[in-house]
Amino acid sequence: MSLMINLLYDYFVGYPKPERWPEELRDNPVAGHSRYAFEEGFRLGVLLMLESTAGELLRP
């Protein structure tokens, strides 16, 4: 993977932390960490979209 992808992943997702996973997935580390990583990526994407369109949304 690229250096930027690795840096972003480490910053936003990082190492597995079971306390952040949904309770029903705590016994399944692959699914738990995958769900957490997806949710963080989705949240970041929505925030980036909002930031990039903020100027257009605020115009009269």
Question: Uncertain segments of ≥5 residues (pLDDT<50)?
Answer: none
Biggest sheet character: none
Instruction: Note the overall shape.
Output: elongated
Q: What amount of the residues lies in strands?
A: under 5%
- Count of DSSP helices? 2
Helix content estimate: 55-70%
- What number is the mean pLDDT? 84
Please provide the count of β strands: 0
Gyration radius (Cα, Å) is: 15 Å
Order of helices and strands: HH
Structural class of the secondary elements? mainly alpha
What do you see in this structure?
It contains 2 helices and no strands. With 60 residues, it is mainly α. Helices cover 67% and strands 0% of the residues. It has helices at residues 3-12, 29-58.
What's this model, at a glance?
The chain is mainly α and 60 residues long.
Could you list some keywords that capture this structure?
2 helices; 60 residues
How do the helices and strands line up, and which of them pair or pack?
Elements (H helix, E strand, L loop, with lengths): L2 H10 L16 H30 L2
